[in-house]
Design a protein that fits this description.
- By secondary structure, this protein is α+β, with helices and mostly antiparallel strands.
- It has 4 domains: 92 residues, 3-Layer(aba) Sandwich (Rossmann fold); 56 residues, ATP-grasp fold, A domain (Dna Ligase, domain 1, 2-Layer Sandwich); 128 residues, D-amino Acid Aminotransferase, Chain A, domain 1, CATH 3.30.470.20; 96 residues, Phosphoribosylglycinamide synthetase, C-terminal domain (Glycinamide Ribonucleotide Synthetase, Chain A, domain 4), CATH 3.90.600.10.
- 29% of the residues lie in helices and 28% in strands.
- The protein contains 12 helices and 22 strands.
- Strands 10, 11, 14, 15, 16, 17, 18, 21 and 22 form a 9-stranded antiparallel sheet that branches.
Length: 423
């Protein structure tokens, strides 16, 4: 098979790592890719939103399977464009990717089909939102309706903060058109857990659990980011939680989308909050989480291509999805100043060390080649992942491996997986 992966982050590197292991794959391309993916695939200088160019390239190269990793092209309808051109593609079509593309849609879906989530109201008028906040309980959560690189969520502790948040999202348009509509949501407390799942339109198979760390700084301080590190599995995702979610969340979501005429094939990411009243859905994503993919995919025993093809063909019920009985931790190495402003183009050393050690991975997110030298090219630069027999061992291994990598401005959180110690 010839495979094309669309995207260029740590998630796509983790996907490429799994695809490269498949005996079915002869040639892999990635658009646009990065310096790490370039070791596994031929990187093509086409952006993820350049649909016409991607379709033309896929036809020219006789691509057998296109895998779309990123949210923007999925929400924009890239799968539909590939399918129109007769190219087999993995991911939800545009009418299903709305599950992530519109928070207002997903909240209304959960309300309609009785899927547990936080109480909320949707607003497309700033004055009405401000009037509602005068009567609201605090803290409260404001969410831009559309995609915002994982940063369109504001937790407001006071009415003044919330008013400023409405201005930021709806009036100043900090997140562009994503803020035309806003969700105002009850603030939930509890443990967060991420559960990724494969879906073929009717059957859902969940992967091993994980937990992300969104805030930029230690102790969950600082601004929201795309994710500063993850661990898998989550010790807080118990058998009881799993049974509840299978009954009241996972299958109900797949069935709800089908009932709405929006058959979902691809990945559904369930962001869950384990509250005192039971698990509730924080958010849906319509693709692999990043950096969750970097701790979940290396632990998967199945051939990823087999599972993807079963999702496309509607035969996922015949797949026995299996994961290693171990743990993994990912620590993101970022450029100091992320997620606001940071320097790019800084040389990176120490990457070859990962080739010498089994169970250690370095997934590239923001990197590129400057001649023969790999340099930084983004806020999140690398995802350093390590396995271990236990979460504590995996955590120690991951932090040890962060020391192998050197670049100026290197920044990371030092408490990824600290919650493990409390489990």
């Amino acid at each position: 098979m010839k495979v094309l992966i669309v995207g260029g982050g740590g998630r796509e590197h983790a996907i490429a790592y799994c695809v490269a292991k498949s005996s079915k794959v002869e040639k892999m391309y990635c658009a646009p890719g990065n310096a790490g993916i370039a070791e596994l695939a031929e990187c093509v200088p086409i952006g993820a939103m350049e649909f016409d160019k991607l379709v033309t390239f896929a036809k020219e190269k006789a691509i057998d399977l296109a895998i779309v990793g990123m949210d923007d092209p999925l929400v924009g309808g890239l799968i539909d464009e590939f399918e129109k051109a007769g190219i087999r593609a993995f991911g939800p079509r545009k009418n299903a990717a709305i599950l992530e593309g519109s928070k207002a849609f997903s909240k209304d879906l959960m309300k309609k089909y009785d899927i547990p989530t936080a109480a909320y109201e949707n607003f497309d008028n700033a004055d009405e939102a401000l009037a509602y906040l005068e009567t609201a309980k605090f803290p409260i959560v404001l969410k831009a309706d559309g995609l915002a690189l994982g940063k369109g969520v504001l937790i407001c502790n006071t009415l003044e903060e919330a008013k400023a948040g409405v201005k930021e999202i709806m009036l100043d348009k900090k997140f562009g058109a994503s803020g035309n509509t806003m969700v105002v949501e009850e603030f939930m407390t509890g443990r967060e857990v991420s559960v990724l799942s494969f879906v073929d339109g009717k059957t859902i198979k969940t992967m091993t659990s994980a937990q992300d760390h969104k805030r930029a700084k230690d102790g969950d301080q600082g601004l929201n980011t795309g994710g500063m590190g993850t661990f898998s599995p989550s010790p807080f995702y118990t058998k009881e939680v799993d049974e509840f979610c299978r009954k009241y969340v996972y299958q109900k979501t797949v069935d709800a989308m089908a009932a709405e005429g929006r058959e979902f094939k691809g990945i559904i990411f369930f962001g869950l909050m384990l509250t005192e009243d039971g698990p509730k859905v924080l958010e849906y994503n319509a693709r692999f989480g990043d950096p969750e993919a970097q701790v979940v995919l290396p632990r998967m025993k199945n051939d990823l291509i087999d599972v993807i093809e079963a999702c496309i063909d509607g035969t996922l019920d015949q797949v026995d999805l299996q994961f290693e009985d171990n743990a993994a931790v990912c620590v993101v190495l970022a450029s100091d100043g992320y997620p606001v402003a940071y320097e790019k183009g800084l040389p990176i050393t120490g990457l070859d060390e990962f080739k010498k050690h089994e169970g250690y991975y370095c997934f590239h997110a923001g990197t590129k080649f400057d001649g023969d030298q790999i340099v930084t090219n983004g806020g999140r630069v690398l995802g350093v992942t390590a396995k271990g027999a236990t979460l504590k061992e995996a955590r120690a291994n991951a932090y040890k491996a962060t020391e192998w990598v050197k670049f100026d401005n290197k920044y990371m959180r030092h408490d990824i997986g600290k919650a493990i110690d409390e489990a």
